[in-house]
Amino acid sequence: MKIVVATRNQGKMKEIKAILNDVGMEVVSLDAMNIDIDVEEDGETFEENALKKATEIMEVCHEITLADDSGLEVDYLNGEPGVYSARYAGENATDEDRNQKLLKALEGVPLEKRSARFVSVIAVVFPEGGKIIVRGTCEGVIHFEPIGRHGFGYDPLFYMPEYDKTMAQMDSKLKNKISHRAKALQLLTEELKAVGTEQE
Ligand code: IMP
Q1: CA 107, CA 8: separation in Å to the nearest integer?
Q2: Which of 7, 111, 121, 128 has the fewest CB atoms within 10 Å, measured from its CB?
C-alpha cells in the first residue's frame, strides 16, 4: 500500500517512515509528489488539524494520505502548549527557544506538579472516501533542564521516570517503540490491516 505522508518535519517523517516501512507500506513524501502547499493548522483539537491536513493534501494528490498533528500537554499549564506546541515561542522560534519558554513557565514548580504528555493524532483519508483517526499518548514529566541530543522538539525536556531518561537520551529504536507517535501508528497499522483484509 502506498501512502503519502503530509509532513515537512524531518524528525516526524523519519519516525513515521521507520514504523510504516516495517509493516510493508511504501511511504512517499510531499516533495516526492511535488506538492508545495501549506495547510493552516487553525483547528482547536489535534483531531481537527490532522484531518484537515490529510484531506487537503489528498484532494491535491488523489492518493491515500496520512497527516499527524502532535504536541505536548503540560498539566500545570492547563494542557498548554497543546495544539500550539510548534508555535509556542512564535513563528520563527527554534526548538531551543520553545524549551526555554517552557522551563520559564514552570520555574519553581516541583517535580510532582510537572506531569505532561505527548499526544499524536494521525488521520488517514482515502481518495475513494473514508477515513481513519487514531490517537496515541505518552506520559512523562518536564525535566528541570534539557538533556540528550537525540530526537527533536521538546524531547530533551520530556523525562520518563520508568526509563530514567529524557526522550532525547533514548535511541531512535527505543523512542519508536514507546512514543505517542509509535502508539498511534500501531493502532493505525491494525486498522489499515483490517481495511486491507476487507478489500481481499
Ligand atoms: P505539529 O504536529 O507539526 O503541529 O507540531 C507539533 C510540535 O510538537 C512539534 O513542532 C514539536 O515541538 C512538538 N512535538 C511533537 N511530537 C514531538 C516529539 O516526538 N518530540 C518532541 N516534540 C514533539
Answers
A1: 32
A2: 128
Say what the pLDDT of residue 196 is.
63
pTM of the predicted protein model: 0.92
Helical spans, DSSP H, in 41-150 = 46-61, 95-105
- Domain residue spans of the chain: 2-199
Interval 13-43: pLDDT, tens: 888 898 888 778 899 999 888 898 888 889 9
Class of domain 2-199: alpha beta
Residue 197 banded pLDDT, cuts 50, 70, 90: low
73 close to ligand 1 (CB < 6 Angstrom): no
Question: Which atom from ligand 1 is nearest to the alpha carbon of 68?
Answer: 2
Here the cell at position 26 is 511504501
41, 27 contact by CB (below 8 A): no
Yes or no: say if 1 and 127 are a contact pair by the CB < 8 Å rule: no
Q: At what angle do helices 10-22 and 180-199 cross, to 10 degrees?
A: 40
Asked if 77 contacts 105 with a C-beta cutoff of 8 angstroms, the reply is yes
Is 69 in the active site? yes
